[in-house]
Amino acid sequence: MKALVYNKEFKNKIEFTERKDPVIKSSSDAIVKVTLSSICTSDLHIIKGFVPRANNDIVLGHEFVGEVVDIGSDVKKIKIGDRVAANCITFCGECYFCKKGFINNCQKGGWELGCKIDGCQAEYVRVPYADMGLSKLPDNVTYENALFVGDILSSGYFGAQMCEIKNGDTVAVIGAGPVGLCSMMCAKYLGAHYIIAVDINDSRLQIAKNKNIADFIINPNKENTEIKIREITNNIGVDCVIEAAGDKSTFEMAWKIARPNANVGIVAMYEENQILPLPMMYGKNLTFRTGGVDAIHCDELLSLISNNKISTDFLISQKFKLNDIEKAYKVFQNKPDNCLKIAIY
User: Fold this and answer.
1) Architecture of domain 156-290
2) pTM above 0.85, yes or no
3) How far is Cα of residue 108 from the mean position of the Cα atoms in its chain?
4) Percentage of the chain with pLDDT > 70?
5) CA-based diameter of the chain, in Å?
6) Which residue spans of the chain are classified as CATH 3.40.50.720?
7) Measured distance CA(233)–CA(238) in Å, rounded
8) How far separated are the first and last CA of the chain, in Å rounded?
């Protein structure tokens, strides 16, 4: 089969090449024919060397949908022929952490696909613990509708959940990229009254506004974010902050715009260590939560999509054939203003 492989020895670290078709290795495995996949910023982090746990010479990618073509003998919930969305996390469902819902720290899995084992930017992919990691699509949900369920939509939901949003809360989301936009949608669904989108990219801010998932938009390059937040919140600060940008300045912004006793949920992946300035923050009594997504709500998110409660279709900016995936990576790396997510088919 054709696949995009990451290897430190390649000139550009990635190469579209031939790879053996995946086969069942464990009775809990499934083989999925990839219908659509996408490129994630964390794929770029691997290429740049910012993910030390990533193995060399692997097929990249962890965000995909497709059709089940083979299953192991212990797979019960998923059948050959099922249309499925994949979880970005591999988890057994039985260990200490899985039973508590902390699947990102599964003792037998975690972020495996496209990091520790071959991922989905290929014609076929092997999915371990298939009954856990694959969700059957409702009949009225298309592959495009479901493409982002197992990763960025789950990440947005995770970020909103970490903030423990209450009805009537004002929530600021820093970063209006794909995860930030998903965070806004999920925050609205969980009861936020006002959403404030913060980004330096005007086109992304306008998407948030035009899609009615942000009530206020702020470009820090054009106005003082802290002052604007105080104006919006009657000089109090926001009840919740979701940090989805991943920069030193946005990390600092997150705790500065939060009101005392607020919740700060950090879903961004940083390329450098960040520092909590505890003496400066003393007295604000903030609660910080952060980490890799515990994507345990895929079935619920698919139900929300099926019932027209949320939609991520607008996130697909461009489509590329699998044969053109190296070109797609160049486009995604350059991040033109109108590029949110790329679908590979």
Assistant:
1) 3-Layer(aba) Sandwich (3.40)
2) yes
3) 21
4) 100
5) 61
6) 156-290
7) 7
8) 14
